[in-house]
């Protein structure tokens, strides 16, 4: 099969190679990959800041395709079923799994980081990670990270109906979904962006008021700030939060180190909340919400598999709106 592979870290080391087609073991399915979502985590894997295994490594943590073959003991999904792949490995038996927080599994890992990923014609995944989808597979490939990360951010923020929610980095692949889930959770949603182009019109279509950072400061305080982008927007996010406010982080593409005044945290009872991935059960919910037309994918560009390096570099493009995909 054709696969994107690196033998040592570095974007410049990505190669398209011909590898043996993998076979599913017990409890696993073989997925014929159709679309792969490109995410900051893939950049971290390829650049070596996340340790990938095994090596040489096939990146790709977010993908959708069709089940080609099932391993021993697998009752479903059956060959021919279109699926999107929940990307957290989970044991189902530890305390975190038993309380539903499968992305926090004590024996967990991420498909595409701790296993070979989806930037290939085929990928083997545990059958319980393969969620049947009715949607077109292009959209479905934006759900495992883009949509589920945003869903979990809204969940962790405990958004109450009518609360004012600011989404920082709203034009990104998590941000475009964060706007939509914050609406579904009942928030009055403000998308914070400097952009005035088609990106702003798209965010309005998703149900958000679109404001610049300065306008957002004028509208503060907000009850909730959702920020998937990281350190570059930390100061802005903190300036937007009011008393009892909740700040939720889910990524650090723009930097990871921030400073925090604890007097503000206790004095105004502010919560700084981490959110990673999402729960297996919530992935089912996200897929159903997409099928029902309650959320929609915003796709910026689709590249062929051979252009994986270009697609990864595109993550940092200021013109990006929503998701970059690879088509296999
Ligand atoms: Zn577990």
Computed structural class:
alpha/beta
DSSP strand (E) fraction? Answer: 25-35%
As a whole number of angstroms, the C-alpha radius of gyration is: 19 Å
Q: Give helix % range.
A: 25-40%
Distinct small-molecule ligands in the complex: zinc ion
Strand tally, please? 17
The general outline is globular
Second-tier CATH architecture of the largest domain: Alpha-Beta Complex
Q: Give the class-level CATH name of the largest domain.
A: Alpha Beta
Distance between the termini: 11 Å
Q: List segments where confidence is low: pLDDT < 50 over at least 5 consecutive residues.
A: none
**Count of DSSP-assigned helices:** 11
**What series of H and E elements makes up the topology?**
EEEHEEEHEEEHHEHEHEHEHEHEHEHE
Oligomer: single chain
């Amino acid at each position: 099969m054709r696969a994107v592979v690196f033998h040592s870290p570095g974007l410049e080391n990505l190669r398209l190679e011909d590898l043996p087609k993998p076979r599913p073991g017990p409890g696993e399915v073989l997925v014929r990959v159709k679309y792969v979502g490109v995410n900051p985590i893939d950049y971290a894997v390829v650049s070596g800041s996340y340790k990938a295994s095994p090596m040489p490594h096939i990146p790709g943590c977010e993908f959708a395709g069709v089940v080609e073959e099932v391993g021993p003991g697998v009752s479903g999904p059956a060959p021919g079923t279109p699926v999107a792949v929940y990307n957290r490995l989970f044991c189902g038996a530890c305390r975190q799994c038993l309380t539903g927080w499968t992305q926090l599994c004590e024996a967990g890992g991420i498909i595409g980081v701790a296993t070979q990923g989806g930037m290939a014609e085929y990928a083997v995944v545990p059958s319980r990670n393969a969620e049947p989808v009715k949607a077109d597979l292009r959209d479905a490939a934006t759900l495992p990270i883009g949509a589920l990360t945003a869903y979990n951010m809204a969940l962790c923020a405990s958004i109450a109906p009518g609360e004012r929610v600011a989404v920082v980095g709203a034009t990104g692949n998590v941000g475009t979904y964060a706007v939509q889930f914050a609406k579904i959770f009942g928030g009055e949603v403000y998308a914070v962006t400097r952009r005035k182009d088609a990106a702003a019109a798209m965010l309005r279509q998703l149900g958000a008021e679109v404001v610049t950072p300065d306008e957002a400061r004028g509208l503060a305080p907000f009850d909730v700030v959702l920020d998937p982008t990281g350190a570059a927007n930390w100061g802005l996010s903190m300036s937007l939060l009011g008393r009892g406010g909740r700040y939720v982080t889910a990524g650090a593409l723009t930097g990871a180190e921030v400073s925090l005044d604890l007097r503000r945290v206790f004095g105004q009872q502010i919560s700084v909340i981490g959110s990673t991935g999402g729960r297996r059960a919530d992935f089912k919910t996200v897929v159903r919400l997409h099928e029902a037309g309650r959320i929609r994918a915003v796709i910026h560009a689709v590249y062929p598999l051979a252009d994986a390096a270009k697609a990864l570099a595109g993550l940092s493009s200021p013109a990006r709106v929503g998701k970059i995909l690879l088509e296999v």
